[in-house]
UniProtKB/TrEMBL annotation:
PANTHER family: TRANSCRIPTIONAL REGULATORY PROTEIN
Taxonomic lineage: Bacteria, Pseudomonadati, Bacteroidota, Bacteroidia, Marinilabiliales
Name of the protein in question: Response regulator
Keywords: ATP-binding, DNA-binding, Nucleotide-binding, Phosphoprotein, Transcription, Transcription regulation
Sites of 4-aspartylphosphate modification: 57
Native source species: Labilibaculum euxinus
Record-linked InterPro entries: AAA+_ATPase, AAA_lid_NorR, CheY-like_superfamily, Homeodomain-like_sf, HTH_Fis, P-loop_NTPase, Sig_transdc_resp-reg_receiver, Sigma_54_int
Gene Ontology process terms (BP): phosphorelay signal transduction system; regulation of DNA-templated transcription
Residue intervals of the Sigma-54 factor interaction domain: 153-383
Amino acid sequence: MVSISNLRILILDDEKLVRDELEEFLIDPNFRIFKAGSPSEAFDIMDKNEIHIAIIDVNLPEMNGLDVLEKVKHDFPEIEVIMISGYSEMDSVIHSMRLGASDFFTKPFRLRDVESAIERTKKFVHLKKSLIEVKRNYSIISEEFQKAMGYEIIGDSPQMKNLINLIGKVAKTENTSVLITGESGTGKELVARAIHYLSSRKENYFYAVNCSAIPESLFESEFFGHTKGAFTGASASKVGWFEAANKGTLFLDEIGDLQLNLQTKFLRVLEDRKIMKVGSNIEIPFDTRIIAATNQNIEGLHSEKGFRLDLYHRISSFIIHLEPLRNRKEDIPLLLDYFVKYFNRVMGKNISEIDGAVIRRLLTYEFPGNVRELKNMVERAVIICDGNRLSLSHFQLTHPKEEKRRIDFSTDENLDLELVEMDCIRKALERSNNNKSKAADLLNITWQSLDRRIKKYKIEV
């Protein structure tokens, strides 16, 4: 919260006498005063300094004081504004309050009027700062790692508040291995970065590696490194991921795709906390935090001999599950607003309005691609929007019923009704993490009906 000891006040008036008089009234070791004789000078000050309160005269050169107020509230919404007016300008005062001014006083002004207006406005400053801090706790956590990650963690749903709480707790630990589960597009890497940048390892490297993208022949070289001449083409020594991420964090995405024979090597390294480069017999210790992620049920894969149970337990000391976007739809308007503002900045656009129909339609959409899909949708919408208002025509969305009924008939293969039904049931169970009630809701059938079909087709749950 802003304390009285660092309140920054900007006085914008074209009369030097008025500026100096107000400065005298406001002389206080707890205030820092800035003065401007024109709007351009004032905006230059606001660009370079964090201003908390701006005192603006209604009558100004270059542009009307009300226009200045409107621009301040648009470009610097965190600044509270007090307007100065004459007794004959009450219509302007009323209009200024509608535009977002916090208070006003009239010329000729008295010290008591100025002090009262400052005291009342100071309360708005304190309140706004408190709300920003609350939003940071539940949305972006901190600007420090937000800038490093490139995106904010957005959401006010119970699931997101719980997620942020878990991130904060596990980040305080030094070496606890974390497994992040969730569908594609839910933001698993973003959560991993948040854990890293909130931890004591934040000054060191964060490396993200997609396990499914590394060929078996290059696995040891990529993760453990190699010496010069270790194999054909090894013209120089190479540092592996474990060594490169020493003292930092190694994020292993799609770890469920790791081949079984490679899992054994991985397990040994994680247990010993030592690596041996290809072509060397010297063991190199490492101090790296491991965060893994998967969109599969790798604990269940063990029963199919697809993933080692001992490796699963090694990487899952602390599990964080990310809910799909369709299960936290109250976050969709917040995400929509965030992405519109983000792409406004990136593309130099000024989209300030969104049709209510857009939000209503997005709230009925299933989002199989989760937050990533919403981001891509908004990016396209902002690109094709020529005005300052987004409408439903800017979004490529199918009707909710069509989403559920769509089946790909583009191939020449024969369609077996039972096979299609089995496939739908398996996908619903996968999407709901084997929760039969949720799977039944997705299929629009009763729990009992789903249970009968599971037994009929002998589907493992």
